[in-house]
Amino acid sequence: MVKKTRWIAYFSVLLLGGMALSGCVSPLPAYGAPYINLDNRAPLPQAKSGEIKPLKVAIAAVISPQGLAESYAPLLEYLESALGRPVEVVQRRTYSEINDLLVAGEVDVAFVCTSSYLAGRQFGLQLLAAPQVDGKVTYRAKVIVSAGSLVQSMEDLRGKVFAFTDPISFTGRVYPTYLLQQMGERPETFFARTFFTYSHDDAIYAVAHGVADGASVDALVLDFALKRDPELASRIRVIHTSEPFGMPPVVVGPHISPHLKVELQEIMLSMHLDPAGQRALDVLDYDRFVMVQDQDYRTAEVVASAVESILDVKQ
């Protein structure tokens, strides 16, 4: 177990860096669809003779980089084997940067946050599939505080330090901002200070080690963290659980070939039928991948729209 002092030092750096860059809470970026002139097309870069072009996969930093590497490696290895081509993982610090890669055609497929999909629809993000967990294709946000805290509700966090995950994280920033909006409040005036951790598990540990008084996190990531580190259960406490929202999806960008999209979708939707595929799913605590539709994200869209003027979220 990492000692408290080490975590405090780590998150102090995050806090100071975040404040310097964003003035505590930075606005969400708005995405505009680029103009593409199809009369001036340049040939796509060709792989060297005998080389197979890799599938480029981006993974939103829902959990910290080390956790991502450990958790997603079996799934990516399965995709590589099923496709018969190498898989290249592309990681970025923020969800916005992954959306930028998708719109530019620099990655083929991405595991993204719910609000990343909502924001990306205007530039052509397409749903590929979503994980089913415990028979459900929904997830929730959970607001957590330290186990010894006297805080019992969101109102009790007034004047406290709050950890956001990513600037466009649905459960990690959009939803807690919505809770405040329903109270007639805004993060910058309600909290004494806010900072970004850039992953949900880091936000959980920020609360567990007293660096933040509260945070809102993905309930699935919280469950996963408690499974890996049972001691966490004695250090944090949930004070609020949201309604269910559409599961963070797997998406493809506007430049993907229809053939590759279909091939990827078929592999993901059937991998639970293959023992090797099921083992890869088990590492992530997924039952299987299933089809999802835009209407599955309507409730999340309502929440995001409510705070559009506060966070500059463009649907």
Binned, the helix content reads 25-40%
Report the C-alpha radius of gyration, rounded: 20 Å
What CATH calls the topology of the largest domain is D-Maltodextrin-Binding Protein, domain 2
Tell me what portion of residues adopts beta-strand conformation: 15-25%
The quaternary organization reads as single chain
**SSE string, helices as H and strands as E:** HEHEHEHEEEEHHEHEHEEEHHEHH
Number of helices: 12
CATH superfamily of the largest domain: Periplasmic binding protein-like II
Look at the structure and give the CATH class of the largest domain: Alpha Beta
Structural class: alpha/beta
CATH architect. name of the largest domain: 3-Layer(aba) Sandwich
Between the first and last Cα atoms, what is the distance in angstroms? 41 Å
